[in-house]
Amino acid sequence: MAKTYPVISTGNNGFDAILKGGLPQNRLYLLEGTPGAGKTTLGLQFLLEGVAAGEPVLYITLSETAEELESVAHSHGWTLDGIDLFEFSSTAEVLGQSYEQSILHPWEAELGNTIRLIEEKVELLKPKRLVFDSLSEMRLLAQDPLRYRRQVLALKQYFSGQQITVLLVDDMTGSNGERDNHLHSLCHGVVTLERLTLEFGAARRRMQVQKLRGVDFVAGYHDFTIKKGGLEVYPRLIAAKHHVKFSTESVCSGIKELDDLLVGGPLRGTSTLVTGPAGSGKTTLALVYLAAACRRGENCTIYEFDERVATLINRADSMGLDLSRYVANGQLVIQQIDPAEISPGEFTWRVRTEVEERNSRMIVVDSLNGYMAAMPQEQQLILQMHEVLSYLSQLGVVTFLINPQHGLIGSMSTSLNVSYIADSVILIRYFEAQGRLRKAISVLKHRTGAHEDAIRELRIDSHGVRVGDPLITFRGVLTGTPEYFGEEHLMEERQRDF
């Protein structure tokens, strides 16, 4: 039987989830990242967790002053009470008052005295958690790469006998790849924080556990943000690890003709793509199913990328869907997504929170174009959306995706090839007939069962959503310019077919 080692919380729930519990105790870890990535904030969270547990903790800073650390803590609503700060604020503190400035910098004496003072402080306080910020200053003091490596190795050997969990902070300002590999090999675990500047919008931040000996952590990149209260980490979603048993019943809209198109409606655990040109009623159609779910007492969520929430509610209420009442009683949550202010990981985490904490049974994403536009420089967005849909499917959640098309009449196109990720595809088209602009609705795909192959007329007005009889007297409706051939031609064609 494999030996297990005790773990301690990092003070960050999302980070602990990535580590599957926390960091193995009494080990040396490297926390590296570019300037502004959040290393100091994460280090303080780590120490504050120790303070909350009644442990002695120590923050050794060679780079920031105590006032700067106080400012960081204050911005998050924290206090540094309980954290021992050891600040190297001047050369005199390291070398003593007898030190005299000369043209030759006495780096050997300075580095040696720095290490000696650190060991004396540790011996005096006997901390259980320690953050060393940062290695870049030690690298500058050492100047010689070989001497620097020896000192880091000596620190590791010293700490290993002290029963301390240590975070070594490095700002990755050096360019020597060998130096990085050396640090990685010395430490029990390596965590990398990155800050990415986009062409427009807020900076993106992500973390990666590059190695952690003896721990089956969640590999890959995980998005995170820095908010008041610390780092908010969004662990990468692995859909296959989430599954519950649920009934695969049909979810009806309450409109018989609409339900007939899908032979009862979409099944639980499936996703439906509603596609069509602007103003054709895609969102309204999804809201009909959502209002019916709310009437059944289910919790639902809308992620609104395009339309203002107030406009959406007013429009739905004017058609008798009564969304304002469901918002007021908490059954319906509408989240307005600000463009360029959200990462794919944060969006996925919001979905998970609604499903796992509110038990949301229906999700509407309006729209996929807005989702793509909100994160223009992100990679593999459709693949990440596919993972979200797989997760929702495993939990029996019904999902509606709105996908606008370019064009109004005639040929239409979309910039997103997303029909393959949905279980069902509902198409809405404009067509012209008898001097009027009319709408047609049809089902192109229903992966989970049979569907009606008829093309029906769709009307949306103050009376709500109405689906008419099949358009059997028209030919070429999906082209946008159909040909009307009347009942007489219909009878002749039926006789020829017979």
From TrEMBL:
List the EC numbers from the record: 2.7.11.1
- The yes or no answer to whether the keyword Repeat is present is yes
- PANTHER family the record matches: CIRCADIAN CLOCK OSCILLATOR PROTEIN KAIC 1, PTHR42926
What name does the UniProt record give this protein? non-specific serine/threonine protein kinase
Which SUPFAM superfamilies did the record assign?
Answer: P-loop containing nucleoside triphosphate hydrolases
Q: Which UniProt keywords apply?
A: Hydrolase, Kinase, Phosphoprotein, Repeat, Transferase
**Which Pfam families does the protein's record reference?**
ATPase
The KaiC domain extends over 6-247, 249-481
